[in-house]
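User: Structure please.
Assistant: Input sequence and predicted structure:
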Amino acid sequence: MTTATATPALHADLGTPARLDALLGDPDDQDNPYGFASFLAADERGDLHQAGERLLDAYGLGAEFVPKRLGGRLARADELGRLLRPLFRRDGALALGHGASNLVGSVNVWSDGSPQQQAWLADVLCRNGRIAAAYTDMSTGNDVGRTAFRAEIRRDELVLNGRKEIINNLARAEAVTVLARTSDAPGSRSHSMVLVDPATVPRDRLRFLPRFRTSGVRAMYLGGLEFRDCALPVTSLTGTPGEAMETILRAFQVTRAVLPSAAVGMVEQQLRTVMDFAVGRRLYRRTVADLPHARSVLADAFLDVLAADAMSTTVCRALHLLPRQTSVYAAAVKFLVPLLFRDTVDALSVVLGARSFLREGPYGVFQKHARDLPVASLVHAGGTVCQATLIPQLPRLARNGWPAEEAAPADVFRLAGPLPELDFDRLGITAGRTDPLLSTLPEAAVRLRGEPVLGALCGQLAREVERVGEDCVALAPRDRTPLAGPASFEIAERYALLLAAACCVGVWLGNPEQPSGFLGEPEWLVGALSRLAGRLGLPPVAGAESVAPRVFAELAARHEQGYGFDLVGRRVA
């Protein structure tokens, strides 16, 4: 039985930066060795930021990806997402190359590895070693079920043959998790996971392939490897032979939830950079921030950050509290948040204008993050893969109806509530029969029906939930599979948008003790729901546009006072 872990003083002393943020210091300081100028220079060279790596080693970042029961600090998915935001704010390459890639490579071992494998990998990471995740093949990309890499079991040996390419940290990794085909039989029982210690592999059986250069996250070391009749102990298999796909479906729920939450830091910085420009640049005797169009874009970007944070944080907490349902939730957040952020950054670039292309100076980080964000968003699972995960499951959820028989637990929406320790064994491969998170929308429509604007918005979204349910049930059998047509993918997108709206409503209702009066007010919720409803093609609700001045005023105040643009709103370094 797992114990509950609290968030120590999440809302206390918001005037102090988080520990990692404080260690990295003011990114705008030209003399700061961990500032934007230094990260931009490393990016131009195509090298990971060495001073940043040394700082993260001194901090012991590797232990953040190791479960507490194995001697690390990983207990809560929501806290891990927040912890990584200062890294993503500064440098996507460092955040992925020295950080999040360790999470992607290790989750399958925490989920299905033997006690010996888990103890060994925990030691590697707690000593600041790295693990590489060799899941995909160049020819099949994220369609991991078609991997051609082979592992043949020969009595007490496992013989590896094949290539894996575009793998982060491969040449520098002390451990590698490899997805391999172990059977020619069709279906999902033909793949296994292998945990490799490169130091024990005969040099004549392993060849490292040349590094790949990329336009985004240019400092990451993306390379490949080739095994040729490489015999390893059969104990290198992680879990039961043939069950790798089940392990991936379970373990990747954690990465699909945590990484979008971490990426909030990157888009927060994009918004901060454009705010710096907008309040400092004068046109027509006013600042850019005074111009109606620019003000609208900035306020909308703020709302998108809040909505993405609400969705990703809620799904991270659902891993602990609703583990049987998170197969759907994790896929939805991994699909939608990168989509929201892409459009947000595109809109912000219009305000910044030609400066959005500069590779140095005070706005240089904008173009770097704009290049890095798509790569950071794709890590191990693109949007289409996530939609394909949703499609087969939605008709079952729709048949059982929204609202669900049981409401979502209140703690799933609380930003500071205690949680049981993350337990990989409790995560389901597919979602259960009910959908308590989405059910928050029709429940809120009843609860808030007396509110003229918010009630109308929730009612509008609740009716859209009904329509999505009807469309799911009406799908033909083929359109309920990953081979479905465009209509099914459109339904999956609509579902994700409605889920985001449900998370926003749940966070607003579930955190009455917010230290910031703004997050207890309805304006941000009205604005966020209006944005999501617009993406669904729903007509504007009368009065919703009146919240814009309050939203922008909060954004401007946080910018001036140096506070974050996410839900917690802690001071940034």
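The chain has one domain: 1-395+543-573.
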